[in-house]
Amino acid sequence: MNSVLDQVFYGRGDRGYAILGASPGGAAFAARVESLCGSVGTPGSEYGGEPFLLSVPENDCVIMVCGRRGAPDSMGRATLFFHALIAAKQNLGAAKADAFSLFEQGVFRDRIPAGGIVPLQLDLGLNSRGSAERHLDVVLPCLFRAEGPAPERVRSAVGDRVNDLAWATYSFQPLPDFDVQVLPLRVLAPWTINEYNASGKRMRAACAKGEAREAARRNPEYQSPLPAAAPITKAPPPGKSNAMLKFSLVLNLALAAACAALLALRKSASVTSGQRPEQRVVTNVVEKIVEKRVAASLSVEQKAEIVREEVKRLMGKFHLLKIEDFDDEAKGAIKNYELQGLDPKYDKQKEFLEKLRAYVNFVNELQEKQNHE
């Protein structure tokens, strides 16, 4: 039976892994092929470069992919190369052909053909399915553990449904929504999949999703790679959200005021700790000018004036303004903390807010005093 198979090539190019080329009909499947090839993961040290197969039904077609070791990149690193064939499921079934038989006939390529990429014209009757091992009685979805591709195990597991199921003879990480797959020995696997060893013996039965999470919790050494559900948070009411935003802005201004006050206190401490500021006295000499530094005592009024000027300079530097409504906002926030309930963490926040409110009031009074002066 003559049939047309479209082609898609995927691998590492100049800009990383991407679609390298496709026949006109294969372009419609390029995104799906890219997703499939990208989902197999990164090879580990145990991978020896052997070819492996993937097969996925796609509407009335079947996407059959062969992955293998590709040419090294510009830095000498190993890469993967994929060749995908797309055929009508009806034609494959009539000719008793599948990805296994096509691979045995050498249809899958290890490099892009020279010239343009065109559909393949094949007589699928010549690629009839070879004899398979005895059928394995497995419960789907399932996975096998092996150090490399295990096509005979997968063929025995899928049986006559080879073109109806999603399967892979090897993958470097779990493939979602696959019926049969083969994984390396040391790769974690979902608890929702039945696990078999290379001999076909079931090592672990699948759990429901809720049971799987509980099993993973009891056995942290073999956790499921299924992503955890994102926590659900309730959005605050619009009024409360605006109030908290306003409070946050006021809090930032207060912290800036605290930094400014600490700098001022540090300056004033150095002035009042007994260290006298230096004054310069210039004495005229016949040929040159000699500078002498003489320590001079300051009066209490002079010291106070220095402190006031330094505080005023710092306030101007940090653009600190009187926070008119902070006291009311803080009182409202403290009341909200009191209404939160029994959570001890709100006690610390309330205590900090009380101290901050007292400090802001002090800064406001200082600013008011400076304005009157």
Write the topology of this structure.
Elements: E1 2-13, E2 16-22, H1 30-38, E3 52-58, E4 61-70, E5 79-88, H2 89-95, H3 99-104, E6 120-123, E7 142-145, H4 151-158, E8 167-168, E9 180-183, E10 194-196, E11 202-204, H5 209-218, H6 238-272, E12 278-284, E13 289-295, H7 300-318, H8 326-339, H9 345-372
Parallel strand pairs: 7-9, 7-10, 8-9
Antiparallel strand pairs: 1-2, 1-5, 1-6, 3-4, 3-8, 4-5, 10-11, 12-13
Helix pairs in contact: 6-7, 6-8, 6-9, 8-9
Number of helices: 9
Order of helices and strands: EEHEEEHHEEHEEEEHHEEHHH
Low-confidence residue ranges: 220-236, 281-290
> What is the beta-strand fraction?
15-25%
The overall number of domains is 2
What is the mean predicted local confidence, pLDDT? 77
Q: Structural class, from secondary structure content?
A: alpha+beta
Name the shape in a single word. Answer: elongated
Largest sheet entry = 11 strands, mixed
Indicate the radius of gyration in whole angstroms.
38 Å
Question: How far is the first residue's CA from the last residue's CA?
Answer: 103 Å
User: How many beta-strand runs?
Assistant: 13
Helix fraction by DSSP (H/I, runs of at least 4): 25-40%
Descriptive account of the structure:
The structure is a single chain. With 373 residues, the chain is of the alpha+beta class. It folds into 2 domains: 2-222, no CATH class; 238-275 and 297-372, no CATH class. Helix content is 36%, strand content 21%. It has 9 helices and 13 strands. It has helices at residues 30-38, 89-95, 99-104, 151-158, 209-218, 238-272, 300-318, 326-339, 345-372; strands at 2-13, 16-22, 52-58, 61-70, 79-88, 120-123, 142-145, 167-168, 180-183, 194-196, 202-204, 278-284, 289-295. The strands form 2 sheets. Strands 1, 2, 3, 4, 5, 6, 7, 8, 9, 10 and 11 form an 11-stranded mixed beta sheet that branches. Strands 12-13 form a two-stranded antiparallel ribbon. A hairpin with a 2-residue loop joins strand 1 and strand 2. Helix 6 packs across helix 9 (345-372). The longest helix is centred in the C-terminal third of the chain and has 35 residues, at 238-272. It is elongated, with a radius of gyration of 38 Å.
